[in-house]
Design brief:
The protein is of the alpha/beta class. The chain contains 7 helices and 11 strands. The relative contact order is 0.17.
């Protein structure tokens, strides 16, 4: 994958070990021949032209605040064909006041009843996605994320709720997404809720393989956009969005 570039932006709440996770993802991408830039500041999103030269953006930033301008730069880069791939709170528990970010990523964290628990990740059996091809259901010890998610996402893996006792148990059992993909303009977006801390990728190797494949899948969108000369202008609107 020579000539492809990725940006990893890490920071925010230290409990999710953003620096360790960023180094793990950096190695995965570099092993695939991708040039990686690491940044520990959200100002990495300030150069809109630079973002559009990338093949992939990997956000690892739990909590925090992202300005409308910086979010717009990311949005427009993705619309042009740049991919986004992330995990756990580093992508879907970020910038809680920024609803556009939630729109881009496909969902946001609401709770993890019981804290760290053993649970099963169930691969969607009828999926044709290469991200989960050949991967069997597996167990993890981590936070089981309860998410509010975009109904347009393509769900690739789920987990069954409830397991831990909490007020939500009075509702019917549900299969909560763990892995999904979606589009943002011409860009591909990938998310997995796995990976509360870096050790999860060691204890459950399938979780790292899914992340690796998800990043590579997201990268492919840029080449398709270039090859087909896809114009993001078809998605632009001057309508008031706030």
């Amino acid at each position: 994958m020579s000539g492809k570039k990725a940006l990893i932006v890490y920071g925010g709440w230290e409990g999710h070990e953003p620096e360790l996770v960023s180094q793990r993802f950096k190695k995965i991408l570099e092993d695939e021949g991708i040039e990686v830039t690491l940044s520990d500041t959200l100002e990495a999103y300030a150069d809109a032209d630079f973002l559009k030269t990338l093949h992939l953006i990997v956000p690892i930033w739990t909590g925090g605040k992202l300005s409308g301008e910086l979010c717009s730069n990311v949005s427009k880069a993705l619309a042009s064909g740049v991919g986004m791939a992330g995990n756990h709170g580093g992508m879907c528990d970020s910038f809680r006041e920024n609803t556009e970010w939630q729109f881009i990523t496909g969902g946001n964290w609401i709770s993890h009843p019981g804290g760290l628990i053993d649970y099963t990740v169930n691969i969607v059996k009828n999926s044709s996605s290469p991200i989960v091809e050949g991967i069997e259901d597996f167990s993890v010890f981590s936070e089981q994320y309860y998410l509010h998610f975009d109904p347009s996402v393509e769900i690739l893996a789920t987990t069954r709720f409830p397991l831990a006792t909490y007020y939500h148990c009075s509702n019917k059992p549900v299969d909560m997404p763990v892995v999904w993909t979606k589009k943002w303009g011409h860009g591909r977006v990938f998310y997995t809720s796995l990976g509360h801390t870096d050790i999860v990728f060691e204890d459950a190797p399938a979780s790292q393989e899914i992340m690796r494949r998800g990043m590579l899948w997201a990268i492919e969108g840029k080449d398709i956009a270039i090859a087909r000369n896809l114009d993001p202008a078809v998605f632009e609107s001057n309508a008031k969005m706030y």
